[in-house]
Amino acid sequence: MADARYRLSAEDIRRRLRATRPGPDPAGVDPEHSARRWPAPLRERLPARLTPAGVLIPIVEYPGELAVLLTRRSAGLPQHAGQVSFPGGRMEQCDLDIRATALRETHEEIGLEPCHVEVAGYLGAQPTITGYAVTPVVGLVRAGLPLVPDPVEVETVFEVPLAFLLDPANQEVGQRELHGVFVPIVEFRYGGERIWGATASIVVALRKRLLDNQ
């Protein structure tokens, strides 16, 4: 059984994220997640202005337990094929704000209607090596809602108990070579799925926000 410290309720999520807001510039990143900490060869590859993007962290409400919904991207995609990610994508001109981006992309990718998502709050935008500023939007979702993944983008949808992701004991640390530079990475493994890269970084940021604001 998971440690009681990590078994949060939906009301815990609402309370601990209530004061959060997206940044004023969707292309800006949270100083806590600034790319300035990256090795120089990686920083030099970034564009002068990052492309705004939004992802949804769907937290599914079950009786007595919360779970995080994730996707595994289709193997035929040109970028990040087969990787685990949150539903989301780049901001389009039609999007009113980064919240709209995350909800629209989620609907397109997995068929989850925006009206079924209760937005609880936001995490600070993070840079990615592919040149995006990604703002995570945290949403609460009822269990049992029908999902229709787009097979072009999504191979499968799965869930991981929130308590598992919040427990630091389940985080693994390694390294990865990027453009000739070795950088530290964190990852989580659950049910045969490997959660790493920007997705794992967002999970770590979520854990910090929820557990540091009790």
Task: Please give a structural write-up.
The chain is α+β, with helices and mostly antiparallel strands and 214 residues long. It has one domain (4-211): Nucleoside Triphosphate Pyrophosphohydrolase (Alpha-Beta Complex). Helices cover 21% and strands 34% of the residues. It is built from 5 helices and 11 strands. Strands 1, 2, 3, 4, 5, 6, 7 and 8 form an 8-stranded mixed β-sheet that branches. The chain has a 3-stranded antiparallel β-sheet with strand order 9-10-11. The two termini are 21 Å apart. The model has no long low-confidence stretch (mean pLDDT 91).
Write the layout of secondary structure elements.
Layout: H1 10-17, H2 40-43, E1 51-62, E2 65-73, E3 84-85, E4 88-90, H3 98-110, E5 117-122, E6 126-127, E7 132-142, E8 154-161, H4 162-166, E9 172-178, E10 181-190, E11 193-195, H5 197-211
Parallel strand pairs: 1-7
Antiparallel strand pairs: 1-2, 1-4, 2-3, 2-8, 5-7, 6-7, 9-10, 10-11
Biggest β-sheet, characterized?
8 strands, mixed
Order of helices and strands: HHEEEEHEEEEHEEEH
Poorly predicted runs: none
What is the multimeric organization of the chains shown? single chain
Q: Helix fraction?
A: 10-25%
CATH class: Alpha Beta
CATH superfamily: Nucleoside Triphosphate Pyrophosphohydrolase
Tally of structural domains: 1
General form: globular
Could you provide a short overview of the structure?
The protein is of the alpha+beta class. Helix content is 21%, strand content 34%.
